[in-house]
Amino acid sequence: MITAEGLCRIFGQGETAVTALQNVSVHIAENEFVAIMGSSGSGKSTLMNILGCLDTPSSGRYQLNNQQISQLDDIQLSALRNQHIGFIFQSFHLLPRLTAAQNVALPLRYSEIDATTTLARANALLDQVGLGHRKEHKPHEMSGGQRQRVAIARALVNSPKVIFADEPTGNLDSKTSKEIMQLLCELHSKGNTIVMVTHEDEIAAYAKRIIRMRDGQILEDSKC
């Protein structure tokens, strides 16, 4: 699914240059559940942004689903993200004026799927994440846990090859965090590949493999 070789990422130039990744290589198979851990500045978010095609490496090779990413232009990268990748963010990134169903359907706006089918898919996914009764509610009318469930449904709407979750429980209390992680485990059991960034050991423990980073390098890569 994911093959990265010798990834380096440098921000800035000259004396102000900051090396965020140093010669990072990682391989993630289909249907793995991987947690990437590290303190602030370790490079974990930079690595996830590159793997999720939100950023490009300064050097190195990255292949997603047998496709060489360095050969794609911005339009092709955008299409790849929309068709094959689902994102879950700490801050949910929901549009405040849209209902839950409309937020979930958003990634399909530029697809060839008709509006009726799009809405039906969004509603079905909200049912799947336990929010069938909140389809017409807007984000400000929902709790943090409910908003994250909407974000998870949105991440699934394009039937992605891989889901990237960046601190998915960072803004949630411990009870709600457990519920969200149980939901991610259910998705993994159904065949989804999940790559999750977290700094919390108790959250990383839900994954089947943990990659620990420090100073832009992989310190440890172990299966649970």
Automatic annotation (TrEMBL):
Q: Which InterPro entries match?
A: AAA+_ATPase, ABC_transporter-like_ATP-bd, ABC_transporter-like_CS, ABC_transpr_LolD-like, MacB-like_ATP-bd, P-loop_NTPase
A single GO molecular function term of this UniProt record: ATP binding
What is the species listed in this Swiss-Prot or TrEMBL entry? Rheinheimera maricola
> What's the protein name?
ABC transporter ATP-binding protein
Q: Which PROSITE patterns match?
A: ABC_TRANSPORTER_1, ABC_TRANSPORTER_2
Which keywords belong to this entry?
ATP-binding, Nucleotide-binding, Transport
Name the Pfam families on file: ABC_tran (PF00005)
Asked if the Swiss-Prot or TrEMBL record annotates the protein with the keyword Nucleotide-binding, the reply is yes
Domain ABC transporter stretches: 2-223
